[in-house]
Design goal:
By secondary structure, the chain is of the alpha/beta class. The chain contains 13 helices and twelve strands. A hairpin with a 6-residue loop joins strand 4 and strand 5. The longest helix is centred in the N-terminal third of the chain and has 26 residues. It is globular.
């Protein structure tokens, strides 16, 4: 019988909680048993966006209130998933909750990363041991605390016969470089914006949370002058390890780069789509020039314009999504945190220093034990 774990994550779009039930067998490979996307209501989504926008200026009252509200929401998502799967709390070994990132500052004298969605509440309401706060242990060891999923990518998507790169396009895009065989280290980093700027621009002009199927961008034409201004940001040329978030790539960042450039909203959207495609593919060609196959996951995998641009920029590289290797692209991140919870309970490391820049491997997260 496999051991069951649940993974929870809410991404930068704050539109839904992704909840995944995995089964872990003796070979250490996860199998997705059930999955669920639970919408986040506007009454929580709007103040969450406001909290993230305020950043360091947000109040403790705002933070603590949303921490509790999200904790209850995450617990409810778990209960829904259990009902859908026909299982009960005692049958689940643990929950791995990434939570909702509201602040990520890996640089400077006081590096930190804050994810909310109180794990005490999740453990108490569900009766399931919960592992949370994965990023800060890596940061305590000198790492970026991101990206956190490359160890999972290595376990699930590595090939002995071809050089692969996993591209995760959530709000922020990140890559995991998986050299064939086992003689070279796995590397990876955040390449820059994934969907976040496109989502924010769509919200601003269409009052929609995302550019579904890239339809808004399809109506526009790339403004090459604006694209060059955006790509000139020094984040794109910085060496790894590096990580970023909406604290950096946001509407303020975009607007300050307009300068004298005049463009229609749909042209800006097309340019933002091109920015993601170009920045991801430039990062791959620079850090993994021998790449034979790219496996894409995350919400950006459903944007046909973005995928077609990446494919064209990739030349002879084979493009697939992660379904090719057995994991639906929509559920890779949530499955990763279920897998990381398993690693934590086993006392095994979950970070890759070659990715995050940490001084050493670490057992990640805090364990919130189920009730007696």
């Amino acid at each position: 019988m496999p051991e069951y774990y649940i993974g929870l994550i809410s991404g930068t779009s704050i539109d839904a909680i992704d909840t995944v039930l995995i089964g872990m067998k003796g070979d250490g490979k996860p199998e997705i048993i059930s999955s669920l996307a639970s919408p986040i209501e506007e009454s929580i989504r709007v103040p969450l966006h406001a909290l993230i926008k305020q950043g360091a200026d947000a109040t403790l009252g705002q933070l603590s209130k949303l921490d509790v509200m999200l904790g209850r929401l995450f617990a409810g998502a778990v209960q829904q998933l259990l009902k859908q799967a026909g299982l009960t709390g005692p049958q689940i070994k643990a929950i791995g909750s990434h939570g909702q990132t509201v602040f990520h500052q890996p640089e400077g004298g006081t590096p930190t990363s804050i994810q909310i969605g109180d794990p005490n509440l999740i453990a108490e309401i569900t009766g399931i041991t919960t592992v949370a706060d994965f990023r800060r242990r890596d940061m305590a060891a000198g790492g970026q605390g991101a990206p956190m999923v490359p160890a999972f990518h290595q376990a699930v998507f590595h090939s002995d016969s071809e050089d692969r790169v996993v591209v995760n396009i959530g709000g922020i895009a990140n890559i995991t470089v998986l050299p064939k065989g086992g003689n070279q280290p796995v590397t990876g980093f955040d390449t820059g914006p994934g969907n976040t700027l496109m989502d924010l621009w769509t919200l601003k002009f269409l009052n929609q949370t995302m550019d579904r199927d890239g339809q808004f961008a399809e109506k526009g034409v790339v403004n090459n002058e604006l694209l060059e201004q955006l790509l000139a940001d020094n984040y794109f040329s910085r060496p790894a390890p590096k990580s970023t978030g909406r604290e950096y790539f946001n509407l303020s960042w975009l607007l300050k780069n307009f300068g004298p450039t005049k463009t229609r909203p749909e042209d800006t959207q097309a340019t933002l789509c091109e920015l993601t495609a170009v920045s991801v593919m430039q990062a791959i060609k620079k850090s993994a020039p021998d790449t034979q196959r790219i496996l894409v996951c995350g919400g950006g995998s459903h944007n046909p314009l973005l995928m077609s641009r990446m494919h064209k920029l990739g030349g002879d590289i084979i493009f697939d999504n992660t379904s090719m290797a057995g994991i639906d692209p929509d559920w890779v991140e949530a499955a990763a945190f279920a897998w990381l919870a398993c690693k934590t309970l086993e006392g095994n490391s979950g970070n890759l220093p070659s990715v995050t820049g940490a001084r050493s491997e670490c057992v990640l997260g805090g364990i919130y034990q189920a009730g007696l």
